[in-house]
Amino acid sequence: MQRDLIKEAENNMKKSIDLLKKDFASMRAGRATPALLDKIMVNYYGTPTPVNQLANISVPEARLLVIQPWDKSSLSEIERAIMKSDLGITPASDGTVIRLNIPQLTQERRKELVKSIKKKTEECRVAVRNVRRDVNDQLKSLQKDGKTSEDDLKRGQDEVQKLTDRYIKEIDNLLSVKEQEIMQV
């Protein structure tokens, strides 16, 4: 029972970190990456559809994304979705492909992005700590109900704390790497 709780805690902590990685990947850091378009939904025949399911997305240069729709009739809808998004990039279309030039980030924009990633990082830390708290509460109730000994409770809490420390450290490392990537000129 205790082992299951700890395994579940680890899975929930991993999910929090995976979500943070996904958020970081979709943040513009001055470099072109197909992940920038992950959150953009296109109205395709009345159905919200991700861009990557409607087109081939390539990165021919470090600061250029090329979107080549499989269905040419969806080109204008993809363009419209990009314009409405919070990317702040104007698409250039030649009728067959859409080109997105990723502009150099200003120092002010870099600082805003760092602030944003720090906020997301803190939210992830809180999520990991909440998992720890919930598991510790469940372990205490097991001990209270007589289903586990006090020594097992202590061991379980120590194990959960080690997990928490490991994932918090991983979160801090992710933040450090992304911050350096954003602040690179």
Q: How would you concisely characterize the structure shown here?
A:
This protein is α+β, with helices and mostly antiparallel strands and 185 residues long. The chain has helices at 2-25, 75-84, 107-144, 150-183; strands at 41-44, 47-50, 55-61, 64-69, 92-93, 98-101.
Structure description:
This protein is an alpha+beta fold. It contains four helices and six strands. It has helices at residues 2-25, 75-84, 107-144, 150-183; strands at residues 41-44, 47-50, 55-61, 64-69, 92-93, 98-101. The strands form two sheets. It has a four-stranded antiparallel sheet, covered by helices on one side. A two-stranded antiparallel ribbon has the order 1-2. A hairpin with a 4-residue loop joins strand 5 and strand 6 (98-101). The chain starts with a helix and ends with a helix. 21% of the residues are buried. The mean pLDDT is 87.
Give the topology, please.
Blueprint: H1 2-25, E1 41-44, E2 47-50, E3 55-61, E4 64-69, H2 75-84, E5 92-93, E6 98-101, H3 107-144, H4 150-183
Antiparallel strand pairs: 1-2, 3-4, 4-6, 5-6
**Overall morphology:** elongated
For the largest sheet, list the strands in their spatial order.
Answer: 3-4-6-5
Hey, roughly how much beta strand do the residues contain? 5-15%
| Count of helix runs | 4
Compute the average pLDDT: 87
Oligomeric grouping of the chains: single chain
The radius of gyration computed from the alpha-carbon positions, rounded to a whole number of angstroms, is 22 Å
Number of strands: 6
Low-confidence stretches: none
Q: Helix/strand-derived class?
A: alpha+beta
Series of H and E elements: HEEEEHEEHH
Fraction in helix: 55-70%
* Main sheet overview: 4 strands, antiparallel
Task: Determine the N-to-C terminus distance.
Answer: 51 Å
